[in-house]
Amino acid sequence: MQPCCTRRQALATLTSLGALAVSSGPTSTTNAGAMLWAQAGGLPADENKRWRGSALGNLYPFIKEEQQRTRQRLAFLNQRPKDLEAWKAECRVKVFDALAYRPEPCRPDAQILERVDTGDYIRERLTFHTAPNVTVPAFLLVPKGAKFPAPAVVALHDHSGDYYWGKEKIIETENEHPTIVASRKRHYDSVSYPATLARHGYIVLTIDMYYFGDRRLILDEDLERGVNDHSKVESEDLIGQINDRNGKTEHVVYKNMIDAGITWAGVLAWDDLRSVDYLVTRPEVDPRRIACTGLSVGGFRANFLAGLDPRIKAACVVGWMTSFRDLLPRYESYTVPAGWPPGLLDDLDYPDVGTLTMPNPLMVVHGRQDTLFPPDGVRSAFDTLGKCYEAIGKPERFQTLTFDGPHKYPLEAQQRMMAWFDRWV
Fold this sequence. Notes:
Layout: H1 7-14, H2 60-69, H3 76-79, H4 84-99, E1 111-117, E2 121-131, E3 134-143, E4 150-156, H5 178-188, H6 193-199, E5 203-207, H7 220-225, H8 236-259, H9 264-279, E6 285-295, H10 297-308, E7 312-318, H11 350-355, E8 362-367, H12 375-391, E9 398-403, H13 411-424
């Protein structure tokens, strides 16, 4: 079995929409208001069909109608609050309530498992607690020769349909597995941007997202077969089988988390917030200068982290910015595993969560050939964010970068991200 390497391929396995076409080309940058939008992979709504080609079929009209009833009543552009901080506090309460995951606070109690001198920086492999019963594996990069305390970045890895790896997708290590090399080439132009940041003087923390890497799904049958048990690195073929299996099981895990009274998005947000808690315990880190960035579901996480944690002084969201109201009728499947917290859309849309970071700077990157999000939804989100920053008199603190390419974090965007952080962090 060939590895299911990309998020598009994983989603295609889960849906009946088929393969998603992408194209690439020279990059270009524009302002949000002047974008030229390509239709996403031939998946616009089909107005000639009764249910517009939706995977929801005859269930689409009811669900769409209910979605459109939502008001986004707390959105900045609807509230026009005079007291920005009071408005953010009210909104954050709503977001945390909808995320439905708030375990007992605990100390990180970090354990350093390994230190490697790479020449330019020290790479630490460690674990720390985000909840009393939750231990999170991580890498921390500490630049050599930096002036401490130094600025820090929380780097959030992607989904890409590759569950076997987590933090390793973006953290440079020795003797990397061929599947990591291929994934990084496809999604990051073969560059480990956390390593670039570390060489530039930033401390960088990357954790394994829930369900990925050392936190991936392992079944009893795996242990019985002696595979997928962390005792060894599997072959490319077996990694492909594990990724395929775990992709098909995502919706089962998601449903049972909801039934248990928590949300997947809540777990992600909580772990990322507690990652900042760990960073500020490190004497090398300047707690007044912390940023975050990520691609795909990493971008989803960066948006929530920046919106919910005022300690994040600048953010760069890559490959995940849309209005959730525009996902129906042809993008229904493309929100796994994070999903949208139940009930939150009546208060805030996804870009509205991003506005909670105001007046802190926010940069958003999007490929015009990205097939995961509807062009109307991306355009709407960019418009919302731009208007909000203009309304507070800080238009220079919101920036967009668009490029004529697919769902990725290209080198140009990585360079612009670092310049953005140098300016604001």
